[in-house]
Amino acid sequence: MRLLSLPALMNTLTSIEELRFRDGGAESDEAVESRSDHALLEATRVGDEAAFAELVSRYRNQITNFIYRMTNDYDGAVDLAQETFVRVYRAADRYQTSHAFSTYIYRIATNLAISELRKRKRRKLVSLTGFFHGKDGAEPVEFDPPDARPLQDTAMVDDERRKAVARAISTLPEKYRAPLVLRDVEGRSYEEIARILEMSEGTIKSRISRARGLLKEKLRIYF
Amino acid sequence: MNCKACRIEIEESDEARPLSRSAGAHLDACAECRVFQEEQTALRRLIGSLEVVAAPADFDFRLRARLAAARSDGARQSAWSRFAPGARAMALAASFVLLIAVGLIVRQVWLSPASNNRTQDLAEKDSVKGTAAPLASTPSTSGSIAETQKNASAPVGIYDTPQAMAQSQKNANRNGNRNAASTNNASGNREGIRSNDFGFNPPAPSIVPEGITDPVTGPKTTMVAVPVQASRKSATLTLNFGGAKPQNISLRPVTFGAQDVFEQGDAQKSLIPSVQGIW
User: What is the complex's ipTM, to 2 decimals?
Assistant: First the structure.
């Protein structure tokens, strides 16, 4: 993944006109919004950038949220989400309408997120909260010492619990993480997850079950 | 319904869709499965409690900038690709250059004097197979072969008559440096033929052990003995051209350092016969 800062991006531009999605014609905003994903991508293929802008507005939050849950890194997630759209735009000519567009874009996002996780693993980033690992190569154990202080605020407790859940998800092996996030965070069906990850439904069900079992162990103190 | 089937149904169920009647009946009867269902529900709620993260406000702006950058990169690449050869062409050109380089190296090695001499040696070996005396090849380095050939074409020796000398020269041309080995072989003494190992081949063919008839040059050739153990001393050669007064030539000693081995104590007497080898 190539991380580009905004000033660096601006330096690559030759004119400010490039920053505007050009209108594809006299089509109104309502007409564009009512079109299906396939139709929007077809229009993008012939140069209708308003159609592409509509696709971006439909999926930017979902994709950013999904990648964030996969990587537990907001800035990285935003960057990967943008990379996802760049790839969709570049590969618009090769897109085939055999599957739903959501399956297609989630597959790209999943692949990017998994690549990023593998890069991080190669870089051997040291997590200050992940020093403790199970015996014999078992799943890493989250370092979460009990806080004996009195509760300050319910909102704060909720916030802490959410952070713990996010951390617990981020410690799952990637093969379990992607199906779990797609199922329990994104609410995708087993069938769709199987298509996104290009696996059988049985494998997906098995992995989600295993991921939930691991999470249950990690988050037992919260329920 | 058993516990396993019930738990699978619980895991695969949506919150919006209730469990089947049989699963519900099993849950009423099985406390463990009920606990399992409660844990699953709690876990899903916990995961579901994660806030939905939204893209930043400048997401579109940055994406457009990125797309514009990608477009300009693409334009730059396509402009370059008009002039630059493709990867296949580059690979083809590289392999062609490599092939030529390998060909040149092989040609150089094949045409080098060493390989020529080796080829000639092989051919000569075939041609000399029919001779009476078996020929043994002396160990030689590639660098010494050319030297040997050169020396063999002008043999140094002592001959009774000019005809004998001419005959010897012809034989030397034919057999090259094998004369030395063959004569040595004829005497049954193969020890001491080591000078070739230094990459220098002396004009050995003409120096043969005393009293032994050279199988190639015939009985008319006068043999000259050069005892190795006396190498530190000057050698005297007696030239006898039949009837005429013999002439004595004194040869100055040549030291290669290996003589030291032979001149140490008893080994000199016990190990080295009168004719040790040919330098």
Answer: 0.70
